[in-house]
Amino acid sequence: MISLPAGIDAGGHEALLARLNGAFEKLGGDYRENISRLSAAAGEVLGAGACAYAVLDENGLRRLSGWNIPDAAPADGEGICENLVIASGSGACTLVTDLPATPYFISDPIVSNNAFLTYAGIPVKVRGRIKGIFSAFFTTHRPFGAIDEQIMGLIAHMLAGEQDRFDSRQEILVGEEKFGAFFRSSLDGVLIHDLAGRVVDANPSAERMFGYPHAWLVRMNLTRLVPVESAPIARQALREVKATGYSRTEIVLKRMDGSLFSAEIVGSRFEVNGEPRVHGIVRDISQRKQAQDEAAERDLRFRKVFEQSLDGIVLQDQNGSVIEANGTMCKLLGCSKEDVVGMGLADLHPEKDLQERMRFFQQVQSSGESRYECEFLRGDGSTFSAEVAASSFSHGGHT
Question: What is the pLDDT of residues 212-228, one digit of tens each?
């Protein structure tokens, strides 16, 4: 759905908006075809005889496309009606109801070939600058009401969006030689967007990742890709990249079908022709997060068994120092967990048995397991006999 710019009232004109929305929803990736579609919808809604769109660049005015215009009619230079809008210096609609009284009745091929009597034109502004002129031509001396001016304003708003996307794409293409191969072939999704979150380009991996075709992705804001619960994280990441030029964020994102996935996004700010852009690399980390969750669940199960066991359990490093002990072991030793952690073999066994205990400890490290009976020292100096089943394992690169 199109969004209305400030000052345009849609009340009572639902059918007209429906027609324009229908044209908007059919827009694809072809810039000229999109301009033609919007011009045609505008012409039908306004009851015009023809419509045209002219771009304004360093080479001056140049008619690009239109509706009900013969191929020979598009022209450029001083002889076309769009100069009336430029000359007015206004951002509003310019209306001329007596074209035969102007030089353009002869010099403008659209007017001279069709004997149009009324002209209406409005500037198309992108980032505060006039980038084009939208024009409508009528065969009658047609008055213009408030709704007509609002429709012209709405069409200019829609065309500005197309022009901005086209300009942004062209700007990206200028620098694409430097990172084009990476952009197209990256296994990670890559989104290029402005500081307001409007997507201006996306690579094939991003299309597959989110399930949207390219033409849809480049017409949406990042908010469409973020579920409500992740919105604060996304806003913080955008603030960070604005302030520092860089951000790294883990976030849950939303596909076109509504399904969610975990992602890591690395954003970097850069400029294209002086305009700030953000290069966002999106990596699907769903499998990594699932593995982390499964590891956490295993750790939770182990911890539960560890703590609830009726047997004493102690974990030692390769030097024999205690790194963890369960409640039962602490009770057997008559010490708190804080006191047990850090104890060595000399603290756990009587001095007379220490050499034998060290031999058994080395045996467990070399063979992986051992079973034996031995005596332990309690905190009060007394001893107790126990059967020990010991095994070694690796964790975090350590035994």
Answer: 999 999 989 999 999 99
Give the 3-state secondary structure of 284-351: ECHHHHHHHHHHHHHHHHHHHHHHHCCCCCEEECCCCCEEEECHHHHHHHCCCHHHHCCCCHHHHCCH
**Cα–Cα distances in angstroms (integers) from residue 235 to residues 108, 231, 239, in the given order:** 50, 6, 6
Only one residue has tokens 């007017």, namely: 111
Q: Which residue has the tokens 């024009």?
A: 135
Quote the CA–CA distance of 64 and 237 in Å, as a whole number: 39
**Cα atoms in the Cβ-side hemisphere of radius 13 Å centred on 96:** 24
Closest CA to 63 of 71, 52, 72, 50: 52
Distance separating alpha carbons of residues 339 and 319, to the nearest angstrom: 18
Q: β-pairing, 118-126 with 189-193?
A: unpaired
Please tell me whether the overall predicted TM-score, pTM, comes out greater than 0.85 for this model.
no
- Exposed/middle/buried for residue 325 (C-beta within 10 Å: 0-12, 13-18, 19+): buried
Q: CA 303, CA 154: separation in Å to the nearest integer?
A: 63
